[in-house]
From TrEMBL:
This is Nucleoside triphosphate pyrophosphatase. Gene3D superfamilies: 3.90.950.10. Its cofactor is a divalent metal cation. Belongs to the Maf family. GO terms for molecular function: nucleoside triphosphate diphosphatase activity. It comes from the Bacteria. The gene is maf. SUPFAM superfamilies: ITPase-like (SSF52972). The active site is at D75. It is an enzyme of class 3 (hydrolase). Its main location: cytoplasm. It holds the Pfam family Maf.
Length: 198
């Protein structure tokens, strides 16, 4: 039986795999994401490309130390009008980001990669278009007071599965993509490989 390893400490990604009935181990990759991103500057790499490279690097990092396992790496980027955003480092930056996103549509690019024996054997990237309603400064402050540091754990300063849903007026995309793991394509690959039951 093939062992599955999730190269992530993300509770959301682990929860998605658990609820899908997968048995897996978790081992976070030791990857400096900002350093990897800096190598892509000036190359013309878009948000989808960057998410995919980061997912690849995470999967390969863990696979190198566990060549017999099938390792799943994932990453997500957020872009708006050609600018890419990272997780806000503090609540002041979360506030600024949400003010910038107010009344506009941003794109989440979620990538997943699978590695075995130190090589990428499969990859996929999906996008979701996220339209945030027009937010007042008072509402953003109220929202951040309630969610606190949880706003710092996601690239958009929101968790769609919680109070973050109140920020939106429209969403065009797959729920799993929004949570950072394109689950349906991943499950399809795992079935094709005989890793999970068909």
């Amino acid at each position: 039986m093939v062992r599955i390893v999730l190269a992530s400490n993300s509770a959301a990604r682990a929860s998605l795999l658990t609820h899908a009935g997968l048995i897996f181990e978790r081992r976070a990759a030791s990857v400096d994401e900002r350093a990897v991103e800096s190598t892509l500057e000036g190359t013309g790499a878009g948000p989808d490309d960057i998410a995919q490279v980061l997912a690849d690097v995470k999967a390969l990092d863990v696979s190198g130390g566990d060549p017999d396992a099938l390792v799943i790496g994932a990453d997500q980027t957020l872009s708006l009008d050609g600018r890419r955003y990272n997780k806000p480092g503090d609540l002041a930056r979360a506030y600024d980001q949400l003010m910038t996103f107010s009344g506009r549509t941003h794109i989440l690019s979620s990538a997943v990669s699978c590695a075995r024996g130190g090589e990428i054997v499969w990859r996929h990237v999906s996008e979701a278009r996220m339209s945030i309603r027009r937010l007042s400064p008072a509402f953003i402050r109220h929202y951040l007071e309630i969610v606190g540091d949880r706003a710092l754990t996601s690239v958009g300063a929101y968790q769609l599965e919680g109070m973050g849903i109140q920020l939106f007026e429209a969403i065009d995309g797959d729920y799993f993509t929004i949570l950072g793991l394109p689950l349906l394509p991943l499950l399809g690959f795992l079935r094709e490989e005989g890793v999970i039951d068909t």
